[in-house]
Design brief:
The chain is of the alpha/beta class. It has 10 helices and 37 strands. A 5-stranded parallel sheet has the order 14-13-12-18-30. Helix 1 (about 130-140) runs parallel beside helix 8. The chain is globular and about 80 Å long. The protein starts with 6 loop residues before the first strand and ends in a 13-residue tail after the last helix. The mean pLDDT is about 95.
């Protein structure tokens, strides 16, 4: 390599063991990390939304994005965990006279499809899990047929943005697809839209489409996600009433919001509150009605829930808590919403966000469904040979406790899709990722790791009212989950603490002098 290709980016003395450092080489943004005495250089922008990885945390040989938890190997640049879909560029490094130089980057590309494989892998569902699985199969070198079936009209897209930047207009429609049409063609991933699966035969190893076509499979991944729960009250069929799950729903709601001045959001769920925030950013008057006394208290506790409520009230949202909607009023189109206390609010837009239901109707008669979802083992295998499930429909054993969990979030679905793909190829590894989700409301991004079905104590670090805090959810003195606002590195560390099963007491979390990173295992 010619000397002109090497660029100085730092002094060797500036790099401390395990501490990420941002640098530049011309226009390239670079992340430098010293590990075991050796200096590594990779791209510093997360391929997901462009966050600076140098603002994240390095644990072992991995760096985790501070925004949405994507994880990369800093020694190779390889992607380890979603929501990012691409690897980082890797830069060669040399040290001369105490200075650190990097050369031209090497990008890890999709491997070429080599050899032949007569097997056909079918994926039902083009959401987070399905798309991630299809991509991972090719990354892992699978050379057989991949058929990705989605009932929607659109190729896989960034579903979490429907309630956020897409609704406000900041994210343009052309930005929403995860990949181009060309991407699927080059990887020989047969993506079929408008392809609704109506039945699965485990014994015949076929799926049946709504047109009657039967498709044979050698391995099958069920990844149909969930559908919005509808509210059965009078008036929900009026023009101006919306559920939000699909890209088609997003287009319709966005068009209606452009003409609306007053909106009612039914439900203080993540989707409901994100929609409320986006509608307020559009200048629409927003009322939120929900039966609970404090929004999100079941997940976050009353103290954090109250902070979330205040965040919205500061932006002008009006809450009607301890109430439910009884009727949507109007002559052909929405004019008002009537509540259980007898009051009513004028509105020309109603959005329901009261949770979702796994889409498993097409599995009737297969024996794969229990209590409305699909139980799997640690490899994400169902009861039927060669059939796997991932995402919102899958009930997965927690790798640390063995307890069955069904998690409804994009990142979890993507990671399970990646894991399922490897299991379809023969991997024996058990799924062991710590659940992660985030919600963005206005400029506040709240992150949550772990899963606390119940908790008997919440320990806080920081200032909840001031909007910069950690909250740890404990059951019997054991940390089950944690939430954060404005403390991105700390929540990454707590995710690793949960993954390692390291003991952490409520008192240690509350005591500011406790260095959380010191709790992580070495090596």
């Amino acid at each position: 390599m010619a000397d002109a290709q090497w660029k100085k980016v730092a002094n060797e003395s500036d790099l401390k063991e395990g501490v990420p450092v941002a640098a530049k080489a011309g226009k390239d943004k670079i992340l430098l990390v010293r590990l075991d005495g050796q200096i590594h250089a990779v791209g510093n922008q997360c391929p997901h939304y462009g966050a600076k990885l140098s603002d994240g945390a390095v644990v072992g040989h991995s760096v985790t994005c501070p925004w949405h938890g994507a994880r990369f190997d800093v020694t190779t640049g390889r992607l380890e965990a979603a929501p990012a879909l691409d690897h980082l560029a890797k830069y060669p490094v040399k040290i001369e006279n105490g200075a650190v130089y990097v050369g031209e980057p090497k990008k890890t590309k999709f491997p070429k499809i080599e050899g032949t494989d007569e097997r056909a892998f079918v994926i039902v569902g083009g959401g987070a899990a399905g798309n991630a699985a299809a991509e991972t199969l090719r990354r892992e070198g699978f050379a057989g047929r991949i058929l990705l079936l989605t009932a929607e009209a659109d190729r896989p897209y960034d579903r979490p943005n429907l309630t956020k930047e897409y609704l406000t207009g900041e994210a343009k429609p052309e930005w929403m697809p995860l990949r181009s049409e060309k991407f699927y063609g080059l990887r020989q991933i047969e993506l079929r839209t408008h392809a609704r699966v109506t039945a699965v035969s485990p014994s015949e190893r076929t799926v049946t489409l709504d047109g009657g076509e039967a498709v044979a499979f050698d391995a099958l991944l069920l990844a149909t996600g969930a559908a919005p729960r509808a509210l059965d009250i009078p008036g929900m069929g009026l023009e101006g009433c919306f559920l939000l799950r699909s890209m088609a729903d997003g287009r319709a709601l966005t068009a209606a919001a452009a003409e609306a001045s007053k909106a009612v959001v039914l439900g203080a769920s993540f989707i409901g509150l994100e929609v409320a925030a986006s509608l307020r950013q559009l200048g629409i008057e927003v009322h939120v009605v929900a039966p609970e006394a404090v929004p999100m208290a079941r997940v976050f506790g009353e103290r954090v829930g109250t902070r979330i409520q205040s965040l919205h009230e500061e932006q002008g949202v009006v809450f009607h808590l301890g109430q439910t909607a009884k009727e949507i009023l109007g002559d052909g189109k929405v004019e008002a919403a009537a509540f259980s206390d007898g009051s009513r609010v004028d509105a020309d837009l109603v959005v329901t966000g009261i949770g979702v239901v796994p889409v498993v109707d097409y599995l009737e008669g297969t024996g794969l469904v229990e209590d409305g979802a699909v139980p799997v083992d640690g490899r994400l295998r169902t009861k039927a040979e060669g059939i796997f499930a991932a995402g919102d429909i899958a009930v997965v054993p927690n790798a640390r406790t063995g307890e069955p969990e069904r998690i409804e979030h994009w990142v979890v679905a993507e990671r399970q899709g990646q894991h399922a793909a490897r299991a379809m190829l023969g991997s024996d590894a058990a799924y062991a990722e710590v659940p992660f989700f985030w919600t963005k409301q206005y400029d506040a991004s709240i992150k949550y790791v772990g899963h606390a079905r119940s908790y008997d104590r919440i320990a806080y670090r920081g200032d909840v009212d001031g909007g910069k805090f950690l909250a740890g959810y404990f059951q019997g003195g054991s940390l089950k989950a944690a939430a954060s606002l404005g403390m991105g590195k700390e929540i990454i560390v707590l995710a690793e603490v949960l993954k390692a099963g390291t003991a952490l007491s409520p008192e240690q979390l509350e005591h500011e002098a406790t260095a959380l990173a010191e709790l992580l295992p070495r090596g």
